[in-house]
Specification:
Length: 234
């Protein structure tokens, strides 16, 4: 197992990991984040002592953008071990019945990968979250031991990163299969260029989405956040 650092409070585990990247490999865990963040400047609600906030940091052994595949599958596997049927939502969210339960933020620093994960464990007050969300506690009606969850996720991450290094194509194929529910679904994507509306035609070999637009043209989207879906056409 790689070394684990546990902090009472930090602005962001990814920010801390970036500042201490020379210590890698390691996993840093915070009991509270004061400035937890996701993609495109979105914040991640991080109240103290309720959820899991961690960043796994290691020298690059995969291409940086492909870390999202094993990381997503690891979180999904953890939740399924608790009988929670979680769904991967392209490219970096984990949801249960359209409600987010976990998010993943992959960043790079000095030839290292920083995989930040926020997992809602014992959260039961959703009033301060402006998007549909849930937690393990809300789904299974009981509290969980955060240390036990952390250790289980640690094991899953190691297993899936090792698997992705040895079997990259198979790992990607499984990630793509877990996202296949998006096919023929009209979605709204927040991207660096604004909002895009289109129907998913294909998840391509590089992980991007091929979106059919109302004009009839196909737009390839490699980065973004799915902000909403409409009724599937199939």
């Amino acid at each position: 197992m790689i070394p684990t650092y546990i902090l009472d409070t930090v602005d962001s585990t990814n920010t801390w990991a970036k500042a201490h990247v020379s210590l890698a490999p390691f996993c840093v865990i915070a009991r509270e984040q004061t400035a937890g963040r996701g993609r495109y400047g979105n914040s991640w609600f991080s109240p103290p002592g309720e959820n899991l906030y961690l960043t796994w940091t290691e020298p690059l052994r995969l291409s940086l953008t492909t870390y999202i595949y094993p990381a997503s599958l690891a979180v999904q596997a953890l939740l399924r071990s608790y009988s929670i049927e979680a769904q991967i939502k392209w490219p970096n969210d984990i949801c249960v019945k359209d409600k987010k339960i976990a998010g993943i933020l992959v960043e790079g620093a000095s030839n290292h990968a920083l995989i930040g994960i926020g997992l809602n464990v014992n959260l039961d007050n959703l009033q301060t979250i402006d998007k549909p969300a849930t937690s393990m506690k809300l789904l299974l009606k009981k509290d969980f031991d955060l240390e036990k969850i952390q250790k289980a996720l640690h094991i899953e991450l190691k297993k899936w990163f090792d698997r992705a290094q040895e079997f990259p194509m198979e790992t990607f194929a499984q990630w793509r299969k877990e996202n296949s529910w998006l096919l023929n679904t009209e979605i709204i994507v927040q991207s660096s260029k604004g909002y895009i509306l289109g129907t998913v035609q294909e998840i391509k070999d590089d992980g991007s989405l091929a979106l059919l637009q109302s004009s009839g043209s196909i737009l390839q989207v490699s980065q973004g956040i799915i902000e909403g879906t409409t009724t599937s056409s199939s």
